[in-house]
# Entry
Amino acid sequence: MALSVGAGWALSAVASSAGREDEPAILVAHSAGCLTVAVWASQHVGPVRAALLVTPPHLDPDWTADPQETVDVIIDHVPREPLPFRSILVASRNDPHATYEQFEAYARDWGSELFDAGTVGHLDSKTGFGAWPDGQRLVRSLTQPFLPG
# Structure
């Protein structure tokens, strides 16, 4: 798995955050941060209770960065194994970085519950989001015992 220096600092930040408290962490990640969580989870066992993964971008397995292109984070392989903790993946019906079907595939592969957020774009400040009550509710739900239904 090839990671740029930028991705290395992100993985270190996840590891540091996950091990900081006495209680297992609940990770909240957006976009490429979701891929970072998946990579970290494939390489570490840490005190993580759950994760909220919001609109991860689709990474084409055949993609390689152009040598002239500046890329902050390069993950050349997105792990497709179940995460070792409960997770909710938030999907948008009109995200420019992934189709709904690609979100479904991530959720299936990672063992995540899928939350359909509707037509919300990439669910970021550029698409007009600030406080997001659904996100706060989803994080609270991750603090409760999981009852498969």
User: Anything to note?
Assistant: The first helix runs from residue 5 to 18.
